[in-house]
Prior knowledge:
mainly alpha
Amino acid sequence: xxxxxxxxxxxxxxxxxxxPLLIGNIFQQLYNLADIIIVGRTLGVGALASVGAVAPLxxxxxxxxxGMTNGFAVITGQKFGAGDVCGVRRSAAVSTLLxxxxxxxxxxxxxxxxxxxxxxxxxxxxxxxDAYWYIQICVFGLFTAxxxxxxxxxxxxxxxxxxxxxxxxxxSVLNVILALIFILEFHLGVPGSAVAVVLSQAFSVVLCxxxxxxxxxxxxxxxxxxxxxxxxxxxxxxxxxxxxxVGLPMAVQFSVLxxxxxxxxxxxxxxxxxxxxxxxxxxxxxxxxxxxxxSFGVAISVFVAQNFGAKNINRIxxxxxxxxxxxxxxxxxxxxxxRLWGSDIVGIFIGQEKTEVINIAHEYLWxxxxxxxxxxxxxxxxxxxQGMGRTLIPLTSSFAELMVRxxxxxxxxxxxxxxxxxxxxxxxxxxxxxxxxxGYFINIKKIxxxxxxxxxxxxx
Length: 460
C-alpha cells in the first residue's frame, strides 16, 4: 500500500516503515545464510571457504548496482513527496533503462576478468574451482538480483515497505529448498548453491512485477514515459542527469565499501581455509545482527526523500535525531546478543565440532560488537544525506572508510596476524561516522536557511 510519509508523527512513521524492512532484510540474508549452513554442514569447511573467499567480490558487484538503483529511487521518492505523479512514472522508466545498461556493463566486465581477479585475491588453489564457478553463476544471474532491488526500491520510495517483504519470504524459502535439491539430490556441489540463489531471486522478480501490475496503478508506465521526443530532448537529458547525479555517486560509494571488503578478504585468504571459513560465518552473523540498523537507515532515506520533496525540513530534523537515539539502543542490544550467544550461533552454521573455526569467529564478534554504535550512526546520517540528494559527503566518508579499513587490515595483519584484521572494520566505522554526522548537520542547517529565505521573499 502506498504511504505518504509527509504527514503524521515522524518517529512512529519511521518505526512502522522499518519493521517490514527489518523482516525483509533478515529474509534477504537467508539467501546467504542458506549457502553457509547448507554448504558448511553438507560439503564441509573447504566448500564453505570457497563461498566465503569470493563473497566480497559478489557483494562489490551487487553493491555497485544496488547503490545506483537506490539512488534512482531517491528521485522517485522526491517526485512522490512533491505530488508529481507523472514524474514518478518517468522516474521509474528512466531508472529501469539506466539500471539495465549498467547491469549489462558490470556483468560483462566481471565475467571477462573473473579469473585474474580471483588470483589477485589470493584464493587458495584447493578451493579455486568451486569459488570460480560460484561467483560466475552469481554474476550471470545479476539481472535477477538487480531488478528485484530496483522494484523494491521504487515501491519503498512510494511508502510501501510491506510488499517487497512478501516476495523476499517466498524467495528465501524457495532458495533453501532448491539449494538442498541441487546439492543433496543432483550433487552439484557449491555451484548448485549459486544456481538456487539465482532461480529464487528470479521468481521474486516475476511475482513482484505481477503484483505491481495489479495493485500499483501509479507505476503503470505509459508509452510516453519511455519515448524521448526531440522537442523534449533538453528536459529529458536533464531528468536523466538528475538520476545520475544521485545514482552514480551512490554506486561509487557502495562500490568503495565493497572494495574495502574485497581487500580484507584478500588479506584473510592468505591465512588459509579455517580463517576464511571463520570470517565467512562471523560476517554473515554480523549482517543479521546489524539488520535493524540497516532497516532504520533505509526507512530514513525514504522518509527524508519524501519530506525533502515536500520541503518539510523540520520533519526531517526531528525524524533523524529521534532515529539516531533509537539506533543507539539497537546497537547496544545487538552487541549484547552477539557477545553472549555469538559462538553458539557460529556452531549452528558449521557444526559444534569445528572448535578452532568457532573460536576464531567468536573472537571477531567479541571485538566488533564494541563498535556497533558507530556503525549504526553511519546508516542514519548517510541515508539522511542521500535522501536529500546530497551524495558528496557520503561518498567522501566511503573513501575515508576504504582507506582506513585497507590500511588497518594490511598493517595490522602484518603486525598481529589474522587477529589484526578484526580491528580494521571498527576503526573504519569510527572515521566514517564522524564525517557523515558532521556533514548532515552542516547540510541540514544550510537547507533550512535557504528555505527560510525563499519563504521570506515570497511573503514580501
